[in-house]
Amino acid sequence: MSVTALPKRFLALLLLSLFAASLSACGALPGKSDLEDKTVLTDQPVDKAQMLSMINAYRQQKGLPALRHDPELDVVSQKMARHIAERDSMDTWAHSAFGLSQRLDKAGYANYAGAENLGAGYADLAAAFRGWQGSEGHNKNLLNPYVTRVGIARTNRNNGKWRNFWVMTLSRPYADGRPTVR
C-alpha cells in the first residue's frame, strides 16, 4: 500500500462517516407530527338559565310542560361531549338508544325515558338550539312529552373539523314518576 493511497482512503472513509452522521441527525429534526398542534379538549360552561329559558319557551308554545335542569344530566352530557370531541365526530356507537341507556345506567341514573341531542360546529347555544329545532329527530327529542329533566354540556377542541361539540340529555328519572300515555 502506498503512502499516498492512505490519505485518499482515509478521506473517503471520513466523508462517508460524515454523510452517515448527517443522515442520522435527520431523525432529530421535528417530523410533521411534532409540528402539528396537539389536540386539546376544553369543557366550556353553558348558561343553564338560557338553555332552560329556550327549551321551556319552545315546549310551552307546543303545549308541553317545562323541564327542570338536572346537574346529573350535565355530567352525562359532558362525558359524551368529550367522547365525540376526542373523535372529532358524532359517529359513535355511544350515540344510540342503547348507548344512552347504558351511559345513564352507568351514572346511576334510573329513568323511564331518555333522549339526547348532539351537535357539532355550532358557535353558541342559540345556534345549537336552532340546529336541533331544524332537525326532525332532534326536534322530536326537544318536544318529547315523557321527559321531565334536562342537562347540557359543551366541549371545545383546538383542532380538527368541528371545534365545538354540544350534548343535551333529556330524561325522566324514577323520582318523577311513570309517564302517562298521551
UniProtKB/TrEMBL annotation:
PANTHER family: SCP DOMAIN-CONTAINING PROTEIN. Residues 1-27 form the signal peptide. InterPro entries: CAP_dom, CAP_sf. This is Cysteine-rich secretory protein family protein. Keywords: Signal. SUPFAM superfamilies: PR-1-like. It comes from the Bacteria. It comes from Roseibium aggregatum. Coiled coil: none annotated. Residues 52-168 form the SCP domain.
